Amino acid sequence: MSIEDFAQLSDRAIMFASFVYAGALLAHVAEWARSMSRPAAVRRERVAVGAPGPAEAAPSAEALERWELKIESSARIGVALTVVGALLHLVGVVARSFATDPVRVPWGNMYEFTVTGTLVVVIGYLALLRRLDLRWLGLFLTAFVVVTLMAANLLLITSAGPLVPALHSYWLVIHVGAAMVSSGAFALGALASLVFLLKARGEERPGSRLARISRLFPAGDALDRFAYRVHAVGFPLWTFAVLIAGPIWAEYAWGSYWNWDPKEVWAFITWVCYAAYLHARATAGWKGKAAAMLALIGFASLLFNFVGINFFFGGGSMHSYAG
């Protein structure tokens, strides 16, 4: 295959992956809708088939089993489509590497970083799905992936091409690779923190639709604990990426370990946010809403570091070539 063929394969595989992820999102929406309407649906089914007894009578075991099977089928379809989407996504990322001469890692600009980083998030979710029973995260994860890939294709897409001279270094693999994996962990932690806040809000408003939704989530302690664990995994990698590998590469490329570049400064601000989150959890015993809000602030800072800096400070940033 030629370079152009690999470029087309990459673009098409990522496009089809987006469609499959959208299908997975719809399947998880169906799962949630059926889970929320389970009692009412079973009562309607009894009335429709002429079952004896009032409409408010307790549903039969068979009716419940049929409805639970529908919910389970939707969930399995969602997971299966997510796996298919991840495989197509992987093909697109790998093909992107072969779409240039010489072959290089597929994270040489913001579009590639976003596409590959999103794949890291999906792989992390699928790897932990059975071990930690993360099916409750499927709806939020697929929504995040669909929106992120859509934004990447609308705002960040760049034709495959050779790296600029400043990126011809093995530090591109080390520095950016570590930042990408840690960002994937932070994304999972942010989604869990968002779910925690939704559950807490629903518990404060009994009888509301949000309260009904919140009953589909795991216990608040489990959500809080999962968020803390993935943040604890991502933080050392982020520390290595922005405070060790990044400055070493900067000294090699620009002759100085620290240049007060906007992306460097904001990466450090993001590090401070996550350091505050983990420090508060470990020493002050912060849990619950305060910790979840701090985690989301950290993730917002992370997103601004990767996207906002390029839009607002692109011309004045030494990292502008990575836009």
UniProtKB/TrEMBL annotation:
Membrane topology type: Multi-pass membrane protein
Indicate yes or no for the key word DNA damage. Answer: no
Superkingdom, taxonomy of origin: Bacteria
Which key words tag this protein in UniProt?
Cytochrome c-type biogenesis, Membrane, Transmembrane, Transmembrane helix
Annotated InterPro entries = Cyt_c_assembly, Cyt_c_biogenesis_CcsA, Cyt_c_biogenesis_CcsA/CcmC
Instruction: Name any one Pfam family assigned in the record.
Output: Cytochrom_C_asm
Per UniProt, residues of the Cytochrome c assembly protein domain are: 107-311
Give the main localization category.
Answer: membrane
Q: Does the keyword Membrane apply?
A: yes
> What's the protein here called?
Cytochrome c-type biogenesis protein CcsB
* Organism of provenance: Nocardioides marmoribigeumensis
